[in-house]
UniProtKB/TrEMBL annotation:
Claim: Hydrolase is one of the keywords in the record: yes
Coiled-coil blocks: none
Keywords, ordered alphabetically: Antiviral defense, Endonuclease, Hydrolase, Metal-binding, Nuclease
Source organism, top-level taxon: Archaea
PROSITE patterns: HD_CAS3
The protein's name in its UniProt record: CRISPR-associated endonuclease Cas3
A GO molecular-function annotation: metal ion binding
The keyword Transferase is annotated on this UniProt entry: no
Domain HD Cas3-type, chain residue ranges per copy: 39-182
GO biological process, one term: defense response to virus
Pfam assignment, any one: HD
């Protein structure tokens, strides 16, 4: 099984693999943000050296859709409802050694579709990631991805959003731009309108 980021709703065919989605978005982040010294700005907000801020931004993008790697999503082959919630919980665990900066990045991941208000999230005790997805994320980052995750409170992330709004958005903006850019470039015309605008602007400024 290939770890998939986007399935065709009608056929269940994998239109965009997770690796394609990640690598295309990372290319934009490197050229549009990191190469333009964005890490220096981000580092000041997070109390990190530029190189560490660059690394955290890359990780935030790599893990923004890690929740799509849950086995039930990959087997169902349609829709990833609440994947940003699961992604944030997984990222919070993976980035725990980053301290407060890791919490800020996890909060940005939670918000990358701007769905702050959620109703009816399945409160399952154990959610399992598919082995292929875990292997992919480890290959790309060298970091261990938990095999299972519990649906738990995001109160800590909510507080971070309230108290560290500027820092959260400093990570959120590049992640959202790269996410929509990658979707528009890879999904055979099935990307978002925002993604199409980002793709066009990126061509205009010679970023891609």
């Amino acid at each position: 099984m290939t770890c998939c980021a986007f399935f065709d709703k009608e056929t269940g065919e994998c239109i965009e693999t997770m690796e394609e989605h990640i690598m295309t978005g990372l290319e934009l982040i490197e050229k549009r943000y990191i190469a333009r010294n964005y890490g220096a700005f981000l580092g000041k907000l997070l109390g990190l050296q530029k190189e560490k801020a660059d690394e955290l931004l890359r990780l935030a993008y790599i893990f923004h859709d890690v929740g799509k790697g849950l086995g039930e999503f990959q087997k169902r082959k349609q829709g990833f409802k609440y994947h940003e919630y699961y992604s944030a919980l997984i990222a919070r665990e993976i980035l725990k050694d980053w301290g407060k900066a890791g919490i800020v990045a996890s909060t940005a991941i939670l918000l990358h579709h701007h769905d702050w208000i959620r109703d009816g999230i399945p409160q399952k005790k154990r959610l399992k990631l598919c082995p292929e997805c875990r292997k992919l994320f480890k290959k790309l980052t060298g970091l261990e991805v938990p095999e299972t995750i519990s649906a738990t409170s995001t109160e800590e992330l909510t507080e971070t959003f309230r108290n560290k709004l500027r820092s959260v958005y400093a990570i959120l903006l590049p992640v959202v731009v790269a996410d929509n850019f990658s979707a528009s470039k890879n999904r055979l015309g099935k990307g978002t309108y925002l993604g199409k605008e980002i793709l066009e602007s990126s061509k205009l400024y010679g970023v891609v």
